[in-house]
Amino acid sequence: MNQIESIEKKDIERNLQSRVYEIIKNYPIRPNVPPGIHLYEDRLAKEIGVSRTPVKFALNKLEQQGLFR
Description:
By secondary structure, this protein is mainly α. It has three helices and no strands. It has one domain (3-64). Helix 2 (41-48) packs across helix 3. The longest helix has 23 residues, at 3-25.
């Protein structure tokens, strides 16, 4: 893999992480999600259609920001 391909891959990964973060951040305000629901990485990943890695990144970031526990 050359340097340009490596940079493009990192950009794609960052964009995916950002999209998943936004989806999960807004998840609790969906009308069919009851308050206090436990969010499972594997379920979210399947629902969003991604691997668990970007979901884990998003959940960790949201927890660090104090938005999720």
